[in-house]
TrEMBL record:
<dbReference type="InterPro" id="IPR050099">
    <property type="entry name" value="SIS_GmhA/DiaA_subfam"/>
</dbReference>
<dbReference type="InterPro" id="IPR001347">
    <property type="entry name" value="SIS_dom"/>
</dbReference>
<protein>
    <submittedName>
        <fullName>SIS domain-containing protein</fullName>
    </submittedName>
</protein>
<dbReference type="InterPro" id="IPR046348">
    <property type="entry name" value="SIS_dom_sf"/>
</dbReference>
<dbReference type="InterPro" id="IPR035461">
    <property type="entry name" value="GmhA/DiaA"/>
</dbReference>
<feature type="domain" description="SIS">
    <location>
        <begin position="36"/>
        <end position="195"/>
    </location>
</feature>
<dbReference type="Pfam" id="PF13580">
    <property type="entry name" value="SIS_2"/>
</dbReference>
């Protein structure tokens, strides 16, 4: 067997163990779940954004809220900013940095939540979205991979999951956090499903 197989799984386990022992990160995950629940109880909406693999995570997050996670329940209003026609239009007319912020300007409002995903915590278009969201009175939850990143510092809640040298370990932790957030929402809003 190739040695990198076991080494990769061991590294992933170490990253997860580090997250489990990080009380600040666990408290941030809890607070982020509460923010989502509060928004939904107040009739608000949830948006998510990110680049590359983080866009895939943003899409996964939104579809499991609007679609189905573990159990049948009412659909929840959530959208990832991933429409190719919007991205190409805004990218062409205003620049790639505006693709997420422009969408929020058109669709979001005060009290809505933005899940801003950036493994580096420095993505310029995610940063622009965070700034727009804050100006609009949205609640910003950042999902980052480096402590004290610019996006994390601007967010209301920064869930930082350092995973090691490369972004793939961070993304593996991000998807775990995303699933916890969705479960937190379901447990609060549909407790009968978890009885």
């Amino acid at each position: 067997m190739k040695p990198h197989i076991v080494a990769t799984l061991t590294e992933a386990r170490s990253a997860l163990d580090a997250l489990l022992s990080n009380q600040q990160a666990l408290a941030a995950i809890d607070a982020a779940g509460d923010a989502l629940v509060t928004a939904y109880r107040n009739g608000k909406r949830v948006y998510s954004c990110g680049n590359g693999g983080s866009m895939c995570d943003a899409m996964h997050f939104a579809e499991e809220l609007s679609g189905r996670y573990r159990l049948d329940r009412k659909a929840l209003p959530a959208a990832s900013i991933s429409d190719p026609s919007h991205i190409s239009c805004v990218g062409n007319d205003y620049g790639y940095e505006a693709i997420f912020s422009r969408y929020l300007e058109a669709h979001a409002g005060a009290g809505d939540v933005l899940l801003a995903i950036s493994t580096s915590g420095t993505s310029k278009n995610v940063l622009a979205a965070v700034k727009e969201a804050k100006a609009m009175g949205m609640v910003v939850v950042a999902l980052t991979g480096r402590p004290d990143s610019v996006i994390g510092q601007l967010a209301d809640i920064d869930v930082c999951t350092p995973g090691g040298k490369y972004a793939d370990r961070v993304q593996e932790l991000h998807i775990k956090v995303i699933h916890i957030l969705i479960e937190s929402v379901e447990r609060a809003l549909f407790p009968q499903n978890y009885a």
